[in-house]
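User: Just a sanity check before I run the rest of the batch. Below are the structure tokens for the first item. I only need the designed sequence back.
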């Protein structure tokens, strides 16, 4: 599968990721600064994680 490496994007699309089986794969769906902002917004507006999404983030 190494021959595909040059076509693999550093980010993924969260709606099409198949189960987030690798550590960090959920976080890799966004650039690091975007994911940090999403985590900040979630901590502010959903501190009890009433609306879970993704692997226990």
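Assistant: Here's the designed sequence for the first item:
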């Amino acid at each position: 599968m190494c021959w595909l490496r040059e076509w693999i994007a550093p980010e993924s699309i969260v709606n099409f990721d198949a189960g987030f089986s690798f550590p960090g794969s959920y976080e890799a769906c966004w650039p690091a600064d975007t994911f940090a902002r999403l985590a900040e917004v979630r901590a502010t507006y959903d501190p009890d994680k009433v609306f879970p999404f993704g692997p226990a983030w």
